[in-house]
């Protein structure tokens, strides 16, 4: 059996605001933004270098209540550089924490969905 996680739905309250946050601030690529006739809007975004994307939109079900999705991990090679780039784009990113040789820094999207930057096997900068 073969399985791949390739798409994670993220509930948001404002699709345009969230699309701007993920593309302009965080640097995700916009794969597509479609609006079928049934009132649904589907926006798929992919982190640079990732095989897994996120999908946001309207009419797809789910509750866009604040902070519905927590702890999604973006694995990076250089957490300090990524953190500084995101901060330079306007993201509020926590200080880097060393948790036994695994480094973490955290941020949230405008709806409170939370993300972790993770660098494995490194000493804290």
Automatic annotation (TrEMBL):
Keywords of this entry: Dioxygenase, Lyase, Oxidoreductase
Regions that span the bilayer: none
Segments forming a coiled coil: none
A GO molecular-function descriptor: dioxygenase activity
Limits of the VOC domain: 4-120
InterPro entries xrefs: Glyas_Bleomycin-R_OHBP_Dase, Glyas_Fos-R_dOase_dom, VOC_core
Keyword flag Lyase: yes
Protein name as catalogued: Catechol 2,3-dioxygenase-like lactoylglutathione lyase family enzyme
Organism: Glaciibacter psychrotolerans
Origin organism lineage: Bacteria, Bacillati, Actinomycetota, Actinomycetes, Micrococcales
